[in-house]
């Protein structure tokens, strides 16, 4: 496997180079060794967050600005790292490119409805979870679908290659799965009656249902059939950063900024803020 | 390369290319028929038909195929209600074929029209002097000569169509590029091997087609 | 249009009558068809002011103001043009180098150049862009930003197409030209540089512009790697305004206008070249035939998607 070896050499070279860069960084007094490189970036106002751009309530690009719960979490993290949240740069990511974006340094931190799972843990590091969602169905208000069992022969839409799409394929093979590259296309298809249901995490669906342009048209079935802990993705080797972000999350519960973030975004639909179980912030590698 | 040792992954790869071939086959036939019709419109004596042909060509030649195929789903199917099948996968396949054919027909039309332009004026004049009508002239004198000079461009259009079939992925047709994307997502460290396999499959499919068409074009060429 | 006039005589009174009748009949059919399309879209309320308002004025959605043009379409268009212009310049350079390389008398230059050109002509642009963006890290040890994934992918493909077109153009320069040049004692390099390329290059203009249209459309594939071009920005727009079908129509119109302008400029330049008598018909035909081939790598396709 010559190619693999080449890749390995390249990776080692990159790591060595990165380590050297870190080494020289740690000589400067502003970043004592052992501290995450994120802190220096935050202080310099250079943090780049990977976020979703098409998920109302969570990460939505409206005009030139981004808004949503994920964006508010990004602001809390930036502040907690000692930076200025107003200086955050947001980069649009889609489900398919979140790991590569972190691995290649295109973004520093990903807050983009990012479910923690074992496969992903091999490639990136997760702080959090800052929220636990579950896969659910969004259907037109008049629909008789009451759960995933009712999907036989029905058309259900999700994002190509996403976890919810895979789950439908494996567990409910009688459903007709329509795949697009973005949920916005699924919602458009649901709005026109082209598909019978859209499936992904309940919180994402709730965000769509709460948008004023869809008021009264859709309802959430409300029977989650999975558990999706949302994590904050960062570089695999940045253990210090992971621990630091978990501390920031803990603090945000105590000082109320977590609840404020919810109330300003997803909470607008009337859903009360969830309680963040700080005892579960255990995903950082030891 | 161990990614291809998994039978499920091998199946995804094979299915992806099978879908590409199916999309290409159906679209090529439809685009050829439609393209010839449009070319006939563009050279006809009736101004309205000429405008119709020209309009079609301008519309589709200047619009990205991604947009055309997305419009087939959201415009033709969602908004207008054109449905080919109850089965969502069969339906998406035919929506993609519709978009690919409409788009490719514009290029086929232009290739045939420029082929007609390569037939010397004297040929048509002689035919007219013999009393042949427009359609006889086109059918017996011009097209047989034009089609020979059109073989090479049509070959290239077929090649482009095969590659363009990857864009059907935007409406959820499980073709080769979607398969490659899925494999890379779960096996990032083997990206190069995965790309090499997919790219070389396209090369193996298309380079022979290119040579076959240029050999055919050389045999058929009208020496003047 | 030239061909149209040779296929039939100047219409006499009867033929004019017949053409007029046919025009009216087909005209009615076209109008009926257009009306049918209008009604079909009307049945799902695609023409409502609500759905078209965002294209004419700033609207308020979810308490935020948003404008289709300044927030989405214009930034997207700018990114599209930027990527297309960069890719085209690089593709021209690539095409020139590889066309000459493929005409080389040295096998060790000719063969590798041929392999490169054939490879990039056969691989879909979508695959290239995807690989560069997500695989670039594993190959070069560094990330390739979305802009460069799009530009490099388009350069390699369109450069290869241009290389073939240039080669056909150079080979179509009448043999007498190079024979005369050799008999004057010019070297191979001089013949290529002073006789063949200048003649071929002048007749390349239509090919270059038609390829520019292809490049512009194919930038639509950039959405797949989150390059914020017109398609991606447009789809962000309709997620906010919930007007997918009207947005697709407007996006198509923008592409058609821009590509139409490009084609118009090409025709004007070509007419000027013809008037000055600098084009060589054989060269032009050969190049155009090859370029027709290269059409629509991704159709923008993917355009994008």
Report on this structure.
The complex is a heterotrimer of chains A (286), B (224) and C (305). Chain A has helices at 2-27, 37-43, 69-80, 98-103, 118-121, 163-171, 183-191, 202-209, 239-254, 257-264, and strands at residues 48-51, 54-55, 59-62, 65-67, 89-92, 109-115, 124-133, 135-140, 155-159, 176-180, 197-201, 218-220, 228-235. Chain A is of the alpha/beta class and 286 residues long. Chain A has two domains: 37-133 and 228-276, Periplasmic binding protein-like II (D-Maltodextrin-Binding Protein, domain 2), CATH 3.40.190.10; 135-220, D-Maltodextrin-Binding Protein, domain 2 (3-Layer(aba) Sandwich), CATH 3.40.190.10. In chain A, α3 runs antiparallel to α10. The two termini of chain A are 32 Å apart. The radius of gyration of chain B is 21 Å and the shape is flat. The longest helix of chain B has 36 residues, at 7-42. In chain B, α1 runs antiparallel to α2, α2 (47-61) packs across α4 (88-118) and α5 runs antiparallel to α6 (134-164). Chain B contains eight helices and no strands. The radius of gyration of chain C is 24 Å and the shape is flat. Chains in contact: A-B, A-C, B-C. Chains B and C meet through α2, α3, α4, α5 and α6 of B and α1, α2, α5, α6 and α10 of C. Chain A: Keywords: Signal, Transport.
The SS-based structural class of chain A is alpha/beta
Overall average residue pLDDT of chain A: 84
Query: What is the number of beta strands of chain A?
Result: 13
Q: Mind summarizing the main beta sheet of chain B?
A: none
Helix and strand content put the structural class of chain B at mainly alpha
Overall number of structural domains of chain A: 2
**Spatial order of strands in the largest sheet of chain A:** 5-1-6-13-7
| Rg of chain B, nearest Å | 21 Å
Model regions low in confidence, pLDDT < 50 over at least 5 residues of chain A: 11-31
Give the overall silhouette of chain A: globular
CATH architecture of the largest domain in chain A: 3-Layer(aba) Sandwich
Mean pLDDT of chain B: 91
Strand residues, percent of chain B: under 5%
Largest sheet of chain A: 5 strands, mixed
Instruction: Work out the radius of gyration of chain A.
Output: 20 Å
Distance between the termini of chain A: 32 Å
Order of helices and strands of chain A: HHEEEEHEHEHEEEHEHEHEEHH
So, the CATH homologous superfamily of the largest domain in chain A?
Periplasmic binding protein-like II
The count of β-strands of chain B is 0
**DSSP strand (E) fraction of chain A?**
15-25%
Would you state the CATH class of the largest domain in chain A? Alpha Beta
Domain ABC transmembrane type-1 (chain B): 17-213
Transmembrane segments (chain B): 20-41, 62-80, 92-112, 150-172, 192-217
Family (chain B): Belongs to the binding-protein-dependent transport system permease family. HisMQ subfamily.
InterPro entries (chain B): AA_ABC_transptr_permease_3TM, ArtM/GltK/GlnP/TcyL/YhdX-like, MetI-like, MetI-like_sf
């Amino acid at each position: 496997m010559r190619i693999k070896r080449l890749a390995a050499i390249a990776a080692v070279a990159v790591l060595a180079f990165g380590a050297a860069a870190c080494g020289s960084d740690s000589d400067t007094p502003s970043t004592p060794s052992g501290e995450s490189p994120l802190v220096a970036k935050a202080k310099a106002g250079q943090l780049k967050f990977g976020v979703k751009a098409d998920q109302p309530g969570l990460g939505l690009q409206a005009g030139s600005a981004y808004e949503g719960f994920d964006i508010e979490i990004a602001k809390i993290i930036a502040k907690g790292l000692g930076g200025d949240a107003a200086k955050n740069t947001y980069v649009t990511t889609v489900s398919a490119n979140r790991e590569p974006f972190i691995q290649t340094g295109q973004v520093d931190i990903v807050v983009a409805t990012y479910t923690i799972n074992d496969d992903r843990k091999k490639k990136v590091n997760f702080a959090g979870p800052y929220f636990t969602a579950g896969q659910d169905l969004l259907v037109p208000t008049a629909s008789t679908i009451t759960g995933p069992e009712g999907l036989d022969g029905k058309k259900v839409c999700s994002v190509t290659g996403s976890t919810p799409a895979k789950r439908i394929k494996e567990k409910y093979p009688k459903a007709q799965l329509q795949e697009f590259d973005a949920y916005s296309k699924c919602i458009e298809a649901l709005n026109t009656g082209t598909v019978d249901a859209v499936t992904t995490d309940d919180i994402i669906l709730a965000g769509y249902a709460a948008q004023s342009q869809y008021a009264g048209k859709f309802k959430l079935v409300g029977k989650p059939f999975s558990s999706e802990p949302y994590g904050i993705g960062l570089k695999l080797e940045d253990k210090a950063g992971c621990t630091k972000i978990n501390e920031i999350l803990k603090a945000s519960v105590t000082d109320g900024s977590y609840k404020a973030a919810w109330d300003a975004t997803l909470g607008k639909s009337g859903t009360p803020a969830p309680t963040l179980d700080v005892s579960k912030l255990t995903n950082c590698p030891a | 390369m161990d990614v291809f040792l998994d039978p499920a992954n091998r199946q995804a790869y094979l299915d992806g290319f099978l879908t590409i071939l199916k999309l290409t086959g159906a679209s090529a036939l439809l685009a050829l028929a439609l393209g010839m019709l449009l070319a006939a419109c563009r050279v006809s004596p009736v101004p309205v038909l000429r405008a119709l042909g020209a309009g079609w060509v301008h519309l589709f030649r200047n619009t990205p195929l991604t947009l055309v195929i997305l419009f087939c789903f959201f415009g033709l199917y969602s908004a207008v209600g054109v449905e080919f099948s109850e089965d969502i996968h069969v339906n998406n396949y035919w929506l993609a074929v519709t978009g690919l054919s409409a788009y490719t027909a514009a290029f086929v039309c232009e290739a045939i029209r420029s082929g007609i332009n390569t037939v010397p004026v004297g040929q048509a004049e002689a035919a007219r002097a013999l009393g042949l009508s427009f359609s006889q002239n086109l059918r017996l004198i011009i097209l047989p000569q034009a089609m020979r000079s059109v073989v090479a461009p049509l070959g290239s259009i077929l090649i482009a169509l095969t590659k363009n079939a990857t864009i059907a992925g935007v409406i959820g047709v499980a073709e080769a590029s979607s398969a490659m994307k899925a494999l890379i997502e779960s096996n990032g460290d083997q990206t190069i091997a995965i790309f090499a396999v997919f790219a070389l499959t396209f090369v193996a499919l298309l380079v022979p087609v290119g040579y076959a068409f240029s050999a055919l074009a050389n045999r058929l060429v009208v020496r003047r | 249009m030239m061909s149209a006039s040779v296929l039939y005589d100047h219409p006499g009174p009867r033929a004019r009558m017949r053409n007029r009748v046919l025009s009216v009949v087909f005209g009615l059919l076209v109008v009926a068809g257009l009306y049918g399309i209008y009604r079909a879209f009307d049945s799902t309320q695609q023409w409502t002011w609500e759905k078209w308002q965002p294209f004419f004025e700033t609207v308020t959605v979810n308490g935020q103001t948003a404008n289709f043009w300044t927030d989405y379409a214009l930034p997207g268009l700018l990114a599209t043009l930027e990527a297309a212009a960069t890719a085209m310049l690089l593709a021209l350079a690539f095409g020139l180098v590889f066309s000459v390389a493929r005409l080389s008398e040295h096998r060790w230059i000719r063969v590798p150049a041929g392999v490169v050109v054939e490879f990039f002509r056969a691989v879909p642009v979508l695959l290239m862009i995807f690989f560069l963006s997500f695989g670039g890290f594993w190959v070069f040890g560094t990330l390739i930003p979305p802009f460069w994934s799009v530009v490099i992918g388009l350069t390699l493909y369109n450069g290869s197409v241009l290389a073939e077109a240039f080669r056909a153009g150079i080979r179509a320069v009448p043999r007498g030209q190079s024979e005369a040049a050799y008999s004057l004692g010019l070297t191979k390099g001089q013949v290529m540089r002073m006789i063949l390329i200048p003649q071929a290059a002048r007749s390349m203009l239509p090919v270059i512009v038609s390829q520019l249209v292809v490049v512009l459309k194919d930038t639509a594939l950039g959405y797949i790697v989150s390059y914020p071009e017109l398609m991606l920005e447009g789809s962000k727009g309709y997620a906010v305004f919930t007007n997918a079908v009207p947005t697709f129509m407007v996006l198509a119109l923008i592409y058609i206008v821009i590509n139409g302008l490009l084609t118009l400029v090409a025709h004007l330049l070509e007419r000027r070249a013809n008037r000055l008598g600098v084009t060589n018909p054989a060269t032009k035909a050969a190049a155009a035939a090859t370029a027709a081939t290269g059409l629509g790598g991704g159709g923008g396709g993917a355009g994008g998607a």
